[in-house]
């Protein structure tokens, strides 16, 4: 087994533990935003898509690269924006909490 | 690889971890999302200096980024809050598709006899990425109601799916051992796409959130596998983080529904028939329905009202009307709370997001465990467009597809107002005994119109 593969496996295994540990105490109300947030993070495949697209010269590679970059960018941009939209509303609510509870104190956008 | 790039990837990985950490606490969630986005930008910028661009490469990257960014930002901005679950499914699916395509391109570049350590992760990524893509698209179609939300089953379905999986396994071995057959992975990709569709078809629309979460974890793993092929640490770490946290989240979600993951994924087999038969036996029972004036008076002279919001409220955009009704009632001294089932709406936490959007005070939102004992002291349980989450068959009908799911004890309230568009069954496709309960008054119509009528009726009472 090459040194590089060994390094990669180490990163892989440690990341599994970190991934589990880091979200183990998430309240139910945040399940949807958290899923959406992790969804945005796997948009990192855009890095991979750019790597294969950059050196493309054959028609097959050009098509593969173009489609992969388009799909991956949609994943990244859409993922982060939609998560932010969800969380924006939580912010509105907690800002409102100290003021009179039954009245509207923050306008909805 | 260049040391600076490696360091930048390390910073990006730290950003992702901190982002996830913050995303799991209500206080820092929005910040967490921002930190993760910063990590993404760092990883992307760090990658660029490493590459040797061809002219075609520059052009396709520019076109792809512009198109993708336009679709992503417009899609995410324009989508209604009620349609967010299917939007997440869509974004997840395209990520899976991208991972599969990256792996295809890499596999092609390895030539005819790639080493096992290079070929294996590519093949893995192609299979898992394709399953995630196809499965997410079916989940999207189900939630968007482009196709039926009820489970689609046929005799021998598990055998067919088993054969598909076995065929994929066979092809994986073929591609790895005899990789000199060019494009043999195309059959592999097609089979994986078919399996992705076949896997999600028998799962009911109400369970889609769990499926999307699982496919989200799949995409993470596919991305990590692509990272092994490309020898890219950023992909390995970020993909694995998503794979691991996504798997845990999937388990947490099915726990919130009181079911095992296996039951969610494979529970439809053989159960829908039993459910349908049970419904058939109950035809011809009568329901009571009330007028806006009756119900308005009942509400106005109650002491405690618990509102149970469901997806019907979300679809009708009735969250503002619900808040208005609550305010009118409170002015008359009625105590109003909202009972939020963990999977109200179509995703855990979905209803909290919607009600927060309507500026419903945080104190009035109560989670299931907190509110369930209060129903017996409530004068009215006002069910607005919810159905499965108050269906008593989850408690007392072992044949029911939702048997075992924790439900809100709305049936224990002194009066039950059931606001619904029609007598049609809920998302899980099963009848609800609560509608036939003698304490129940039905109030048919669009949730928003109905609530507005009730506001006026309460004011007049």
Alpha-carbon distance between the termini of chain B? 76 Å
Structural class of chain A: mainly alpha
Order of helices and strands of chain B: HHHHHHHHHHHHEHHEHEHEHEEH
Which value, in Å, is the CA radius of gyration of chain A? 20 Å
Q: Which value, in Å, is the CA radius of gyration of chain B?
A: 25 Å
**Treating each run of at least 4 consecutive H or I residues as one helix, how many helices of chain A?**
4
The pLDDT mean of chain B sits at 85
| Structural classification of chain B | alpha/beta
Q: Mean pLDDT across all residues of chain A, rounded?
A: 82
N-to-C order of helices and strands of chain A? HHHH
Low-confidence segments of chain B, given as residue ranges, are 270-283
Please explain how this structure is put together:
The complex is a heterodimer of chains A (109) and B (461). Chain A has a domain at 30-98. Chain A is 72% helix and 0% strand. Chain A contains 4 helices and no strands. Chain B has 461 residues and is of the alpha/beta class. Chain B has 2 domains: 53-266, no CATH class; 286-460, 3-Layer(aba) Sandwich (Rossmann fold). Chain B contains 18 helices and 6 strands. Chain B has helices at residues 3-23, 29-47, 55-78, 84-109, 116-143, 157-177, 184-200, 208-230, 233-256, 261-266, 271-280, 292-300, 311-315, 319-331, 350-357, 368-371, 393-396, 447-460, and strands at residues 304-309, 335-340, 365-367, 380-384, 415-420, 440-444. Chains A and B meet through helix 1, helix 2, helix 3 and helix 4 of A and helix 1, helix 2, helix 3, helix 4 and helix 8 of B.
Topology:
The complex is a heterodimer of chains A (109) and B (461).
Chain A: H1 3-22, H2 31-41, H3 45-54, H4 59-96
Chain B: H1 3-23, H2 29-47, H3 55-78, H4 84-109, H5 116-143, H6 157-177, H7 184-200, H8 208-230, H9 233-256, H10 261-266, H11 271-280, H12 292-300, E1 304-309, H13 311-315, H14 319-331, E2 335-340, H15 350-357, E3 365-367, H16 368-371, E4 380-384, H17 393-396, E5 415-420, E6 440-444, H18 447-460
């Amino acid at each position: 087994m090459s040194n590089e593969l060994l390094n990669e496996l180490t990163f892989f295994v440690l990341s599994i533990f970190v991934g589990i540990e880091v979200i183990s105490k998430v309240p139910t109300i945040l399940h949807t935003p958290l899923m959406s947030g992790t969804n945005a993070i796997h948009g990192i495949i855009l890095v991979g898509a750019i790597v294969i697209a950059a050196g493309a010269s054959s028609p097959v590679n050009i098509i593969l690269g173009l489609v992969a970059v388009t799909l991956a960018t949609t994943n990244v941009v859409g993922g982060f924006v939609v998560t932010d939209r969800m969380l924006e509303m939580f912010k509105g609510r907690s800002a409102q909490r100290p003021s009179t509870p039954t009245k509207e104190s923050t306008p909805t956008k | 690889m260049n040391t600076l790039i490696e360091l930048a990837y390390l910073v990006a990985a730290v950003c992702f971890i901190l982002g996830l950490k913050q995303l799991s606490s209500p206080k820092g969630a929005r910040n967490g999302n921002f930190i993760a986005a910063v990590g993404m930008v760092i990883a992307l910028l760090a990658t660029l200096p490493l590459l040797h661009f061809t002219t075609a490469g520059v052009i396709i990257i520019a076109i792809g980024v512009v198109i993708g960014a336009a679709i992503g930002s417009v899609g995410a901005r324009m989508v209604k809050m009620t349609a967010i679950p299917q939007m997440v499914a869509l974004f997840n699916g395209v990520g899976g598709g991208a991972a599969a395509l990256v792996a295809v391109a890499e596999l092609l570049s390895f030539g005819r006899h790639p080493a096992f350590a290079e070929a294996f992760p590519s093949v893995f990524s192609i299979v898992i990425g394709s399953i995630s893509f196809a499965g997410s698209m079916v989940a999207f179609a189900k939630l968007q109601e482009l196709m039926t939300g009820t489970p689609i089953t046929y005799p021998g379905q598990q055998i067919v799916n088993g054969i598909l999986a076995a065929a994929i396994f066979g092809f994986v071995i073929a591609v790895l051992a005899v990789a000199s057959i060019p494009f043999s992975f195309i059959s592999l990709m097609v089979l994986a796409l078919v399996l992705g569709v076949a896997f999600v078809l028998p799962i009911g629309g109400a369970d889609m959130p769990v499926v999307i979460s699982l496919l989200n974890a799949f995409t993470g793993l596919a991305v990590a596998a692509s990272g092994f092929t490309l020898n890219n640490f950023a992909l390995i770490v970020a993909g694995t983080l998503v794979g691991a946290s996504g798997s845990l989240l999937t388990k947490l979600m099915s726990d919130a529904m009181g079911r095992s993951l296996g039951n969610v994924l494979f529970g439809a087999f053989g159960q829908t028939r039993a459910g349908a038969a049970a419904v058939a036996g109950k035809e011809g029972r009568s329901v009571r329905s009330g007028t806006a004036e009756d119900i308005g008076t009942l509400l106005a002279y109650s002491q405690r009202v618990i509102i149970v919001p469901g997806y019907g409220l979300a679809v009708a955009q009735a969250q503002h009307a619900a808040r208005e009704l609550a305010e009118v009632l409170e002015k008359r001294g009625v105590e109003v709370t909202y009972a939020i089932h963990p999977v109200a709406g179509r995703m855990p936490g979905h209803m909290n997001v919607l009600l927060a959007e309507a500026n419903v005070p945080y104190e009035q939102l109560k989670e299931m465990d907190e509110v369930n004992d209060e129903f017996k002291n409530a004068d009215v349980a006002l069910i607005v467009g919810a159905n499965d989450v108050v269906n008593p068959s989850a408690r007392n009908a072992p044949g029911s597809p939702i048997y075992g799911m924790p439900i809100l004890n709305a049936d224990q309230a002194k009066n039950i107002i059931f606001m619904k568009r029609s007598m049609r069954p809920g998302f899980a496709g099963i009848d609800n005994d609560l509608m036939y309960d003698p304490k129940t008054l039905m109030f048919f119509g669009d949730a928003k119109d109905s609530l507005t009528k009730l506001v006026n009726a309460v004011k007049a009472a």
